[in-house]
Automatic annotation (TrEMBL):
This is Olfactory receptor. Signal peptide: none annotated. It is found in: Cell membrane. InterPro entries: GPCR_Rhodpsn, GPCR_Rhodpsn_7TM, Olfact_rcpt. Keywords: Cell membrane, G-protein coupled receptor, Membrane, Olfaction, Receptor, Sensory transduction, Transducer, Transmembrane, Transmembrane helix. The lineage of its organism: Eukaryota, Metazoa, Chordata, Craniata, Vertebrata.
């Protein structure tokens, strides 16, 4: 999924193109060897402020999501479909943030903010792939909660271990194939003139603005992908939770209703956080003049959301907290 796109923080420097076609072709070949990620280069004081903030949030993201994966693997009581998909979500969050945060932190402290052509393509592909996979994975997790609450007796049969691996694997592979296709088509375009990407990553929409060829195929693919990966999974999630809510309301006891809802409340919170921020970024009215506040919000959105996922699951889920205590206790007792 492309990063939410905003206008550039400032105007890119102008370059003089050679008039002849041969010279333009030479410019295309040399200029596309690397890109400049503009980011917040016009605001050095803001860069100094963002560096410790983003570094701390990235560290929490790595530690929190790694802990979720470790607990899910080490505690046999968490070897269930729900925690299998939660482990996949944590791995996704680690991969997603690691595609751009380390380089962004380097650029925040460096005057040279370049990235090679190949590096840009890899960053673009991995960012698209992990973001797209998360959209599908959240829908799969909603389906898992629907079966667990609305079909409890048949749940072990319907959501078998084989089906879990099949659903998760299909999401990873299909989104990777989609992202590779989008990246290859976008990066095969000719790039003329300046090579300054008005973003802090090689975001595909920002890179396409530098292309001097026909971008209609890339834009059409991105539009189809956005429709399939945003409103369609969201509609599926809404349908699943509508059926879940109807089932919970039919539970006779208040304690039973609370227990049923607690099994899916953490996932619902993650869904609201993920889709809420994405919808806000895309539906927000765009001003003609780009504002640095929009860029700052984009950075925080991209870093904060993966950081909060393990926090939400650890705070809202007693099983995760209890499993973490057991794993931690076993580790200390073995020393």
């Amino acid at each position: 999924m492309p990063h939410p796109q905003r206008g550039s923080v400032g105007s890119p420097p102008s370059y003089t193109l050679f008039p002849s076609t041969a010279a333009v072709g030479l410019v295309n070949r040399t200029e596309a060897s690397e890109f400049v990620l503009k980011g917040f280069s016009g605001y050095p004081s803001l860069e100094c402020l963002l560096f410790p903030l983003c570094a701390a949030m990235y560290l929490v993201t790595l530690l929190g999501n790694t802990a979720i994966v470790a607990v899910s693997v080490l505690d046999v009581h968490l070897h269930t479909p729900m925690y299998f998909f939660l482990g996949n979500l944590s791995i996704l969050d680690i991969c997603y943030t690691s595609t751009f945060v380390p380089l962004m932190l380097v650029h925040l402290l460096s005057a040279r903010k370049t990235i090679s052509f190949i590096g840009c393509a890899i960053q673009m592909c991995l960012s698209l792939s992990t973001g797209s996979t998360e959209c599908l994975l959240l829908a799969i997790m909603a389906y898992d909660r629907y079966l667990a609450i609305c079909r409890p007796l048949r749940y072990p049969v319907l959501m078998s271990q084989r089906l879990c691996w099949l659903l998760a694997g299909a999401a990873w592979v299909l989104c990777l194939f989609k992202s590779v296709t989008e990246t290859v088509i976008a990066m095969r375009l000719p790039f003329c003139g300046h090579r300054v990407v008005s973003h802090f990553t090689c975001e595909i929409l920002a890179v396409l603005k530098l292309a001097c060829g026909d971008t209609s195929v890339s834009e059409a693919l991105l539009l189809v992908g956005a429709i399939l990966l945003l409103p369609v999974p969201l509609a599926f999630i809404c349908l699943s939770y509508t059926l879940i809510l109807a089932t919970i309301l039919r539970v006779p006891s208040a304690a039973g209703r609370r227990k049923a809802f607690s099994t899916c409340s953490a996932h619902l919170a993650v869904v609201l956080l993920f889709y809420g921020t994405v919808i806000f970024m895309y539906m927000k009215p765009k001003s003609k003049e780009a504002r640095v506040s929009d860029e700052v919000f984009t950075v925080l959105y991209a870093v904060v959301t993966p950081m909060l996922n393990p926090v939400i699951y650890s705070l809202r889920n007693k099983e995760v907290k209890e499993a973490a205590r057991k794993v931690w206790g076993r580790r200390w007792s073995s020393k």
